[in-house]
């Protein structure tokens, strides 16, 4: 039959194992968060590269297509330079709208990153408290 001290040592050993497992779990969680962040950044970089390429070709398309509009309309209703000004105003309006949408999207992305950093900081603080408590008990 186990004596009281054997049982206390057994419980203390189990508690240390649980604490060690919790530390390993926290470290694994931090590594997982790092891996997820790196994978997310890589996906984002590829997506941004593809979108930039598409944007360049779309820009060429818009230059040629919208360059043709004032040329075709010159002499009808307004003179040629008026149509060019109206086309420039249209470009300005589209650019402002896209800048607004991009800024909003960027703010949302930064907020998500800050949330991830906050979660990692909480995990690190919990891990430090756990290891300090574990060191005191040893």
UniProtKB/TrEMBL annotation:
The chain crosses the membrane at residues 44-69, 81-103. Keywords: Membrane, Transmembrane, Transmembrane helix. InterPro entries: Phage_holin_3_6. Pfam families: Phage_holin_3_6. This is Phage holin family protein. It comes from Candidatus Aeolococcus gillhamiae.
């Amino acid at each position: 039959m186990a004596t009281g001290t054997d049982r206390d040592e057994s419980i203390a050993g189990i508690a240390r194992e649980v604490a060690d497992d919790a530390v390993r779990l926290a470290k694994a969680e931090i590594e997982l968060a790092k891996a997820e962040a790196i994978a997310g950044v890589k996906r984002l970089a590829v997506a941004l590269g593809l979108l930039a390429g598409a944007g360049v070709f779309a820009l060429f398309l818009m230059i040629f297509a919208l360059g043709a509009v004032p040329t075709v309309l010159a002499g009808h209703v307004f003179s040629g330079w008026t149509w060019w000004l109206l086309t420039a105003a249209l470009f300005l309006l589209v650019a402002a709208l896209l800048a607004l949408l991009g800024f909003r999207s960027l703010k949302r992305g930064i907020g998500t990153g800050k949330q991830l950093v906050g979660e990692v900081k909480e995990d690190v603080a919990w891990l430090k408290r756990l290891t300090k408590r574990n060191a005191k008990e040893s």
